[in-house]
Amino acid sequence: MDWESVAAEDVIEALREVEWSTRPRSMAEFFSRFAFPRSFSKWMSRLKCNLYYYRTNYFILLIFVLGLALITQPLAILGAALTALSIAFLNDSFAATFNEKMIRTIRHFSPHLAAKMRPPHMPVIRGRSAARKTVYVCGQPRLVFVLLGLTASFVLWFTSCGLLWVLYALATALLLIILHASMRTPNLKARLNTFREEFRAVWRNYSEL
């Protein structure tokens, strides 16, 4: 895959739609073969490739750095957990899986309430939605849960007087992610895995027609 021709918006869209349930890459693979990019275009290509391929590792690294920085502040840790959950809701697969599990759990206690929490029916034209599909969580648009989670985490950080420390930890985690994605050379396994995921995505879209 030619990552130089892939726009940043396409990478963000792919990260939103791709499955995040895959296991993280091994530590031996994650911390091997570092080198400086030879040009700006090579750096951008490597950055986009690694952000997509090592997405689960980077998410774990982000949570680890935040947890390590806030280990003495329980409220701030809870705020970091809510932030991670809110970010996870931005992924289609995670939001849909969470919604299904919540509805199944609530169905055991109140089938009527579980039925109300089902997403509304969307009109379909030739096997595809008439408009861009909106992801629902517990009967509400996903964005509602994202905003509520971020607001609650901000309040917890502010209450624990650790907001500035959280920002420092977040900046450190993002800097580590960018440095790793910039220096880690894409290997053959990453390229083959990307091609395989592309094929699966195309086949899934074809089967929906």
The percent range for strand residues is under 5%
Report Rg. 20 Å
Summed up, the helix count is 10
Q: Report the biggest beta sheet as strand number plus sense, adding barrel if it closes.
A: 2 strands, antiparallel
Protein structure class: mainly alpha
User: Termini distance?
Assistant: 25 Å
Q: Would you write up a description of this structure?
A:
The chain is mainly α and 209 residues long. It has one domain. 67% of the residues lie in helices and 4% in strands. The chain contains 10 helices and 4 strands, in the order αααααααββββααα. The chain has helices at 8-17, 27-30, 40-53, 55-69, 74-88, 92-107, 111-116, 142-159, 163-183, 188-207; strands at residues 124-125, 128-129, 136-137, 140-141. It has a two-stranded antiparallel sheet. Strand 1 (124-125) and strand 2 (128-129) form a beta hairpin. Helix 3 crosses helix 9 and helix 5 packs antiparallel against helix 8. It starts with 7 loop residues before the first helix and ends with a helix. The relative contact order is 0.16. Mean pLDDT is 76; it is low at 123-131 and 205-209. It is found in: Endomembrane system; Membrane. One of its GO terms (cellular component) is endoplasmic reticulum. May be involved in both secretory and endocytic intracellular trafficking in the endosomal/prevacuolar compartments. The chain crosses the membrane at residues 52-71, 77-98, 142-159, 165-183. Keywords: Membrane, Transmembrane, Transmembrane helix, Transport.
